[in-house]
Write a structure and sequence with these properties.
Layout lengths: L1 E6 L5 H10 L14 E7 L16 E6 L12 E5 L10 H7 L1 E4 L11 H13 L4 E6 L6 H16 L2 H12 L9 H10 L4 H11 L7 H4 L4 H9 L6 E4 L4 H8 L4 H9 L14 E4 L4 H8 L6 E4 L3 E10 L2 E10 L4 E7 L4 E6 L7 E7 L2 E8 L2 E8 L5 H10 L5 H10 L15 E3 L4 E2 H10 L5 H8 L9 H10 L31 E2 L10 H15 L3 H18 L6 H13 L14 E5 L5 H16 L7 E5 L5 E2 L9 E3 L5 E3 L4 H9 L15 E4 L6 E3 L8 E3 L14 E3 L3 E2 L3 E4 L2 E3 L4 E2 L4 H8 L9 H8 L10 H19 L7 H17 L21 H4 L7 E2 L2 E3 L31
Parallel strand pairs: 1-2, 2-3, 3-4, 4-6, 5-7, 6-8, 20-21
Antiparallel strand pairs: 9-10, 10-11, 11-12, 12-13, 13-16, 14-15, 15-16, 17-18, 19-33, 21-32, 22-25, 23-24, 25-26, 27-28, 29-32, 30-31, 30-34
Helix pairs in contact: 4-12, 6-7, 10-11, 14-19, 18-19, 23-25, 24-25
Length: about 900
């Protein structure tokens, strides 16, 4: 028995709570029901118009607030009306938390508030044992505004009267699974929600990684005095603000009510808990007392956060620069106290130490209305003043709190550009977090932008809480609002007309890139020389010569001391784009500056890597409008076995033939030996992803259903083409090449571009040692195959390529034809020549396998004598190395490889 949950507003807190309770995904009215759905629950809310839905003869329960006007419902169905839910008090969180004000838009009525859990219990019981008719559920006792304020005041006083009691309540709130232990994920959520910077969160989690988790004692260990001071500043007394119409209606609108529902509430008569029940309606009362509910909920209205191992953070309302502001006091575990002021809109921010030293060097960068000022002592940030948003604020705050000295090159870069980093990694995939503090994904934000014409930052913040914690996501979300979605790859969200990019890439005559001796990955012989050459190119081409010298000095110090160094994100991103630009076998290099770079060097486990691979696929697929993307993992020799994220299995048959893709025969057999069981074998079974960490056995992970976008192949003129039952995946993401950059080798750095049609139509589906479909197509076309002189293969391969291009276009999937792409490549070569760079090309890889002489690359005279670094290099197949370490082997004969347009 399964139940379908249909929600008028799938993102309403009650919808989410019920979905979690039932383990279901909220659906919309137009989503089809499954044959196995034996029950249907329709959840109506005041935030949107009531649904009209007919689920057929299945048992039906409609749940709605008592004040909502609903259409007639099926006589044999059930309808559950409910009173105001206690969770609706959360709409007053900010006023209650920061100003101790209870905004009351419900008139002078007394309300018998209902605990949400009791409503969920009744729904749960109906699913197990359906009933029909109408029932009304209300709370056990009614409260007017004054009584509610008094009850909240009493609960607040009890919660702040004891530091130990407060810590216990806070721990209970964070312990989501109730096992008396905060695991890594629970602690991550707690810290990010409090606005702790990602770097500090990672530090705490790394420390926690040595333990199974932390218990209630460890949660506040060493923070007792700081917690007592913070709680002593809190007030408990709550004042009522009685809102009359139209102010009350406006408040309800801010809470997400529809205008009709808000007005109807204030016109309702009599002004009591619920209207008189019509004949036949069964009235029920809940049993949870308000005081009981408040004991667990009131902790959220006390603006004090316990940050394990870090300190105690409290906040209050105030003013700064003449504007309403939040004033934070951060009591660190070492006894220091940081004071942070920021206006509500994050446009004015100041950080300083309460007992900080006087003096220091003040560095101010300004452009238009933007002002960023840092005070440094011994290269450490001791004070910050900002006017205008800064995407790096979270990082700046972390550097200020931790007191880490800034590298000299970073100070120079700030003087020049007002930034510590030229480019911010941009969230794009539906699962990518755009606001980590409020747990808002790109998919959620994109949906809201598409639903609301001309949405504002305020309306998005009200619906999602995004931008309301640390404010670091404001520039990115503002850029989304400006363009109606994610910024294009390679464009920094903080870039504006006042803060433009630094200019075109030019090859300075003094820059001498490293030349590789082989297309295979070979050990680094002179890391300092390769690092120096790369940094000179990276900063030289971006006109940052004043940053180069201090950065070189720092890298040389690291290399002398540790034998290694770490790329900044800017260096990693520019290096990856250079590697694409330098790829001698790629036709799509004209798009090198658009590469989206995802830095995942912090990930450790196979599970974390696989989750990042799934996110890469989602972001790069982009609904068919493929985005060129690379994900870079830790450079410690870890490998992804698969040649590409998407590959079809090849199964050896008893007669020696292969079902599926013969190119994947070895990997398929290795996976079967590892225990993979695909069930019934077919020609197009997607292989799992195999990940191997250094010194460990490989592990495989099944790709989630519906993750991979596949295109069925049809022909615009021949209807029988669909009978061939051909298909191919949309995303060509190469995952077995090494990214070699500045003396550091990233052996797991998967990347994708988009397909050129001939890669599928003239290679994957046509080659005799692949899917070999040309003889079948010839038979369907009725061609004479008795002699090669009839050119039947040529006719068939053209029609197959017509079918591939047609099918991808019909499916809305980005794909290039070989004529357009070769012309774009020639434009790229000319542009590179203007920049003083000679394009290195292996001619046989830039001439298409069909119509070669009709394309401009066939007639061009290219030089392919050099392989420049950074670049992508071949690695041996890991399953061929019984020792599991595949980074030092040599592949005897390089196979054709184009990093961003690779056959397969």
């Amino acid at each position: 028995m399964t139940c379908a949950l249909i929600c008028a507003d799938p993102y309403h807190p009650l919808s989410q709570a019920l979905a979690l309770r039932l383990g279901l995904q909220p659906r919309r009215a137009d989503d089809p029901l499954n044959p196995s759905d034996s029950r249907v629950v329709i959840l109506q809310t005041a935030s949107v118009s009531p649904l009209r839905c007919d689920p057929g003869p299945r048992p039906l329960l409609e749940v709605a607030p008592w004040h909502l006007t609903l259409p007639e419902f099926r006589p044999d169905a059930a309808r559950l009306r409910h009173a105001f839910l206690l969770s609706e008090l959360s709409h007053h969180d900010d006023a209650l938390t920061l100003e101790r004000l209870l905004l009351w838009p419900y008139g002078k009525r007394s309300i018998a508030w209902l605990d949400d859990q009791e409503l969920l219990n009744v729904i749960d019981a109906w699913i197990d044992d359906p009933w029909s008719g109408e029932r009304c559920l209300e709370g056990p006792e009614a409260f007017d505004a004054g009584q509610m304020a008094a009850a909240i005041s009493s609960a607040l006083q009890n919660a702040i009267s004891s530091a130990a009691g407060f810590a216990a309540l806070k721990f209970e709130t964070c312990d989501r699974d109730g096992d008396q232990l905060l695991d890594v994920e629970e602690l991550r959520v707690t810290l990010l929600h409090a606005g702790v910077s990602a770097s500090e969160v990672n530090w705490v989690l790394n420390e926690l990684g040595k333990l199974d988790g932390i218990d209630a004692v460890q949660f506040s260990q060493g923070l007792g005095h700081a917690l007592e001071e913070a709680l002593a500043e809190q007030q408990a007394s709550v004042q009522v603000v009685q809102l009359e119409c139209p102010a009350a209606v406006s408040e309800l609108l801010l809470q997400g009510w529809r205008e009709e529902a808000a007005i109807a509430l204030h016109q309702a008569s009599p002004p009591t808990t619920t209207p008189d029940a019509p004949s036949g309606v069964i009235r029920c009362k809940g049993s949870t007392a308000l005081a009981t509910w408040l004991r667990s909920r009131v902790i959220d209205w006390i603006p004090v956060e316990i940050l394990p191992a870090l300190g105690v953070l409290s906040r209050r309302a105030g003013r700064t620069e003449g504007h309403p502001a939040l004033l934070f006091t951060y009591r660190l575990s070492n006894g220091q106290v940081a004071l942070i002021e920021r206006t509500i809109d994050f446009r004015h921010v100041a950080l300083r130490w309460r007992d900080g030293p006087d003096g220091g060097e003040e560095i101010t960068w300004s452009q238009g209305d933007l002002v960023r000022s840092l005070t440094l002592m011994e290269q450490r940030i001791v004070a910050v003043r900002l006017r205008g948003h800064w995407a790096e604020f979270n990082r700046v705050e972390g550097l200020f709190i931790k007191g880490e000295p800034l590298p000299h090159w970073m100070v120079v870069l700030f003087r020049r550009s007002g930034r510590f980093q030229l480019e911010q990694e941009q969230p794009r995939g539906p699962a990518d977090p755009i606001c980590r503090c409020a747990h808002v994904s790109c998919g959620r934000l994109a949906e809201l932008i598409s639903q609301e014409p001309g949405p504002s930052l305020t309306s998005l913040a009200r619906q999602t809480k995004a931008t309301t914690v640390c404010g670091g996501c404001i520039p990115t979300i503002e850029s989304w609002l400006a363009v109606g979605g994610p910024m294009p790859p390679g464009v920094d969200a903080s870039t504006s007309p006042l803060n433009p990019p630094l200019g075109p890439s030019l090859q300075a005559p003094s820059i001498q890139p490293v030349v590789a001796s082989s297309p295979r990955l070979l050990p680094i012989h002179d890391r300092p020389a390769e690092a120096r050459a790369f940094l000179q190119q990276c900063y030289g081409e971006q006109h940052l010569h004043e940053v180069l010298s201090p950065r070189l000095s720092e890298v040389e110090d690291h290399l002398q001391r540790d034998g290694d160094y770490h790329h900044s994100y800017d260096e990693l991103a520019y290096g990856a784009r250079l590697a694409w630009r330098n790829s001698t076998r790629c036709l799509g290099r004209h798009l090198w500056e658009d590469l989206d770079v995802r830095d995942r060097r912090d990930l450790e486990s196979e599970e974390q890597m696989f989750a990042a691979i799934v996110e890469h696929i989602q972001a790069a697929t982009n609904g068919g409008q493929l985005l060129s993307t690379i994900t870079v993992f830790k450079p410690d020799g870890r490998r992804i076995w698969n040649p590409q994220f998407c590959r079809y299995a090849g199964y050896r048959q008893p007669d020696g033939s292969v079902l599926g893709d013969p190119m994947q025969l070895e990997l398929t057999e290795a996976l079967l030996a590892m225990g993979w069981n695909p069930g019934v074998w077919t020609r197009f079974d997607l292989l799992p992803i195999v990940i191997q960490l250094p010194g460990r056995q490989p592990r495989y992970f099944e790709l989630p259903p519906d993750l991979i976008l596949e295109v069925s192949i049809s022909h615009p003129r021949y209807s029988w083409f669909s009978d061939l039952d051909l298909r191919w995946y949309a995303l060509p993401a190469v995952s077995n090449l090494a990214f070699d950059c500045g003396g550091i080798q990233y052996t797991a750095a998967p990347f994708n571009g988009f397909y050129m049609g001939t890669e599928i139509g003239a290679s994957n589906l046509a080659d005799i040692d692949r899917y070999n479909q040309l003889p079948l197509i010839a038979a369907k076309l009725g061609l004479d195959t008795s002699s090669e002189r009839t050119l039947w293969r040529d006719q068939c391969v053209v029609e197959l390529n017509v079918a591939v291009l047609h099918s991808f276009e019909q499916a809305g999937v980005r794909m290039a034809d070989h004529h357009t792409l070769t012309r774009s490549f020639m434009d790229f070569a000319a542009s590179e020549h203007q920049c003083g760079r000679r394009v290195q090309v292996e001619p046989r890889y830039v001439v298409p396998p069909i119509s070669a002489s009709l394309t401009p690359t066939y007639h061009a005279d290219f030089d392919g004598s050099q392989i420049l670094k950074p670049n992508f290099f071949l690695q041996p197949d890991p399953w061929l190395d019984c020792g599991g370490n595949a980074t030092d082997g040599i592949e005897p004969e390089p196979s054709p490889v184009c990093p961003f347009h690779r056959g397969g």
